[in-house]
Specification:
heterodimer, A: alpha+beta, Glutaredoxin, 4-stranded mixed beta sheet, 4 strands, 37% helix, B: alpha/beta, Alpha-Beta Plaits, 4 domains, 4-stranded parallel beta sheet, 20 helices, globular
């Protein structure tokens, strides 16, 4: 599974690096290193709704530290 | 009307965009070429462009409007890629060269006919003679233009009549063509820094433009659906476009069709980090960021080539990173530099960066679309740290490497940085000469071909004293304060390391 985290300017300012750190932690915690391939993207085209991530072909916006667990659960763990 | 109102009306609405009228002329040609390229009317409009730029009936630049138009024709050729058979980025427009006098050292009216005759004493060639009024004369057959006489004259009465292009070219790649008397570039020496382009008062030397490639790339992307076009912008942008906010320029870049704008300074962060590592390992390096400096080593100090840092330039590093995340991406570097156009013709950068345009050319493209950036809503640009951003000015790279060594915790007993920041190619030459003879006390040469660093680049719109302060201020605005913070997250992405 390919997961992209947007590191473009807008998302960067909204904290995409925190999301990357959380992503890394949670992938490790769930032993998904071999199934999830984490990658960066310079802009996913949803600058006003960041932080944006993309799981396979689906773009998910408004990811934050607060809702991270919920999103990780829904889009990555359950798939 | 009150006084206040009158003053307001007199103040121009926008600040001046360029330093000189030569730049303005070049810009007009680029803008018209861009306009026709967008409209697919370039072929049939080739001759019309000259008439748009020289529309008056009496000449303002040359002997007649026909010569003016002929020269504009040559400018159009360079604006559309120039002589395809000549790979050198910088070209002379023969018919635009005014064949400036090249008298060398000459005694001027200011000579007082003194008794001391320091000029005579210092001249080793016996080239100075005196007339019946005790005024000095230089025998051109004997004079070798060493300039000693000019240095010792108490009245500064001896002037050096050198062509501005030759004076600008500190590496002596410009001479006079014996036949045409026009300026001639020795391509085996030229490092594409563009100093002569900026200095020629007649605009007779120009850098080839690849705006057509960029416009075609933008048009061909079908609004970034077929592939995405990324703009990588140099940190010196902070000292440019003073009539608008940086955020508005970023919005403008997207408006002309770029998908995303990324700071080259993030590449600079990556470079600083791995350059510090390489330096601590090897013990001596020269920087690899400035393509003109690197090219100079290759051409004039071939024995020093193995001392050049193996890092890509910041432009190359960030472009490689973007292409790793988006393999079909097209990448255009936008900066102050004419030598970058040469850098992307070479391995290994060739595969990462698709085209290069200067700030001058960006301005021309934006204006060709009739976009008023001052009316656009500000967009954001933030990817890099303070240290990546100050690469734009002389001394910034050395500061960043110092910081990276500190962040990496390299103990001083293991490696202590002693950098020399060479501001301009003349200083680079001195340091390289010493290093090639093993008498340079420093262990790191930061080489910047342009005086002041990138902010002195030939493709800048303006060159001013305030530019350095603006770069520093822009650096301070960075969200990440350390290099590690800036690249750590990227390092975590995928299983690759930045310096691989």
């Amino acid at each position: 599974m390919k997961v992209y985290v947007c590191v473009g300017s807008s998302c960067h300012l909204k904290g995409s690096y925190d999301i990357i750190n959380l992503m890394k932690e949670n992938i490790a915690k769930n032993g998904l290193e071999d199934t999830v391939e984490l990658s960066g993207a310079f802009c996913l085209g949803k600058c006003t709704e960041g932080v944006s991530i993309k799981v396979e072909d689906e773009v998910i916006c408004g990811v934050s530290k607060e809702n991270f667990n919920e999103i990780f659960d829904k889009y990555i763990l359950k798939k | 009307m009150s006084n206040e109102k009158q003053i307001q009306n007199k103040t121009p609405k926008k600040l001046r965009k360029f330093d000189t009228k030569v730049q303005l002329l070049k810009y007009k040609v680029l803008r018209e070429v861009a306009r026709h390229a967008y409209n697919d009317t370039l072929l049939e409009s080739f001759n019309d462009i000259a008439k748009v730029i020289v529309k008056q009936k009496t000449p303002t630049m040359r002997c007649c409007i026909y010569k003016e138009r002929a020269i504009v024709g040559e400018r159009i050729k360079i604006a559309t890629g120039g002589d395809k058979k000549n790979p050198n980025i910088i070209e002379v427009i023969d018919i635009a060269c005014d064949g400036c006098p090249e008298g060398g050292y000459t005694v001027t009216e200011d000579c007082r006919g003194c008794i001391a005759h320091r000029c005579e004493d210092v001249c080793k060639r016996g080239a100075i003679t005196f007339d019946e009024h005790q005024k000095a004369h230089i025998d051109k057959d004997k004079c070798v233009n060493c300039g000693q006489c000019a240095k010792v004259c108490p009245y500064t009465a001896i002037a050096n009549h050198k062509r501005p292009c030759e004076r600008a070219c500190k590496i002596k790649a410009i001479s006079t063509d014996e036949e045409t008397r026009a300026a001639k570039i020795d391509y085996s020496k030229c490092i594409s820094c563009g100093a002569c382009v900026y200095q020629c008062p007649f605009g007779a030397i120009d850098d080839k433009s690849f705006i057509l490639d960029v416009i075609n790339m933008l048009k061909g992307s079908d609004n970034n659906n077929r592939y995405k076009t990324y703009a990588v912008v140099a940190p010196s942008i902070s000292s440019q476009f003073s009539y608008a906010k940086i955020g508005q320029i970023i919005a403008g870049i997207k408006k002309i069709g770029f998908y995303s704008v990324v700071e080259a300074a993030l590449g600079a962060d990556m470079v600083a980090y791995s350059e510090a590592k390489e330096l601590a390992e090897k013990g001596f390096l020269t920087s690899s960021c400035c393509p003109a400096f690197v090219n100079y080593i290759h051409k004039s100090f071939p024995t020093m080539v193995d001392k050049i840092s193996h890092n890509l330039s910041p432009m190359g590093a960030i472009a490689k990173y973007i292409k790793d995340t988006d393999p079909t991406a097209k990448i255009v570097f936008i900066g102050p530099c004419t030598a970058k156009k040469m850098e992307i013709q070479q391995e290994p950068v060739k595969q990462y960066v698709d085209s290069v345009i200067t700030f001058e050319e960006l301005q021309a493209i934006i204006d060709s679309r009739d976009i008023d950036v001052t009316e656009l809503e500000e967009d954001v640009l933030d990817n890099a740290s303070y240290f990546g951003r100050i690469f734009a000015r002389s001394g910034g790279l050395a500061d960043a490497v110092t910081q990276a060594l500190k962040e990496q915790g390299v103990p001083e007993e293991e490696f202590k940085l002693n950098a020399v920041s060479c501001d301009g190619i003349e200083e680079c030459k001195k340091a390289l000469l010493k290093a090639s003879k093993n008498v340079l006390p420093n262990n790191f040469i930061e080489g910047m071909a342009c005086v002041g660093g990138c902010i002195g680049g030939a493709g800048c719109l303006t060159h001013g004293d305030k530019d350095k302060r603006q770069v520093d201020a822009y650096g301070q605005e960075a969200y990440e304060k350390t290099i590690k913070d800036s690249i750590a997250a990227l390092e975590k992405i995928g299983n690759r390391k930045i310096d691989e």
